[in-house]
Amino acid sequence: MKAIILAAGQGKRMEINEPKCLIGFGDVSLLDRQVMLFRKLGINNITVVVGYKPEKIKPIFCGKIINREYSKTNMAYSLFLTQGIWTEDIIVSYGDIIYEEGLLNKIMMAKDDINVMVDTNGVQYFKDRFGENYKAHLESLAIEKNNHIIDIGRSFAEADIENCDGQYIGLLKFKLKGLRMLLTTYWKNEDKYKNAYMTTILNDMIENGHTINAVKTDGGWLEFDTQEDISTYQEWYEKGKLRKYYMEVL
Question: What is the rounded CA–CA span in Å between residue 58 and residue 215?
Answer without folding.
Answer: 31
